[in-house]
Design brief:
single chain; 101 residues; Multidrug-efflux Transporter Regulator, Chain: A, Domain 2; 2 domains; 3 strands
Length: 101
């Protein structure tokens, strides 16, 4: 695991890094846009990837995106990435090469 993936950053530092309020960050978590870990005491811990994600979400919302739009785009990208991975594995297994479109 690289250092950017470790969930070690507390809420106070995340608010300073992102410029978002605690309320906004909790709302994004509630909507399934970011997934902090919880300590035994219940405090949220974020990774550097989470911080980048929060900034990305806030920017998209400021640009007029809806939360549903963000989640739908990610679902489509995830499906495409999964399809590309499978296609690559099949191409490798059967020694075929993708055709240009």
């Amino acid at each position: 695991m690289d250092y950017k993936s470790k969930k070690v950053i507390g809420m106070g530092v995340v608010t300073e890094l992102t410029g978002l309020s605690e309320r906004q960050i909790r709302y994004y978590e509630e909507k399934g846009l970011v997934f902090p870990e919880r300590t035994k005491g219940g405090s949220r811990k974020y990774s550097f990837h989470d911080v980048e994600r929060l900034v990305e979400v806030a920017t998209k919302l400021e640009d007029g995106w809806r939360i549903q739009d963000i989640k739908e785009r990610e679902r489509r990208l995830s499906a495409k990435q999964r399809d590309d991975l499978i296609r690559g594995q099949l191409n490798s297994a059967f020694r075929t090469f993708p055709t240009k479109k």
